[in-house]
Amino acid sequence: GGACLDPRKLPGDLLLRNWRAGDQFCPPGCRKPRKLKELFRQHRIPTGQRRLWPVLESGKEIVWVRGFPAAASVAASPEVRQVMLVLEERGETASPRVEPQ
Question: Which CA distances in Å does 37 have to 12, 42, 48, 57, 86?
């Protein structure tokens, strides 16, 4: 899977970090943010893997989570000519790893 972010929609600097308890994310199709813990349960992401699960923040908003499309608020539409960042996953061994802070 991958995600394209529209640079005009990003609310601030980008920060790649690990998931934290209480994090919320608004995937496409949702009207309001949902707790990542609930999304992890729904998508059957093992509890032991969640601690090192990467998320990308812009400003104070989570704009991307591994395994999910870009947040609805920053997703690039087909007519966007400039893309800020393309995030791709290339299998389990090449997955992004971020050490806890």
Answer: 24, 9, 12, 17, 25
How far apart CA 30 and CA 27 sit, in angstroms, is 6
The three-state secondary structure class of 8 is helix
Strand partners, 4: 86
pLDDT in tens, 51-76: 889 999 999 899 999 989 899 899 88
Closest CA to 66 of 12, 13, 10, 23: 23
Phi/psi for 49 (5° steps) reads -90, -20
Is the pTM higher than 0.85? The answer reads: no
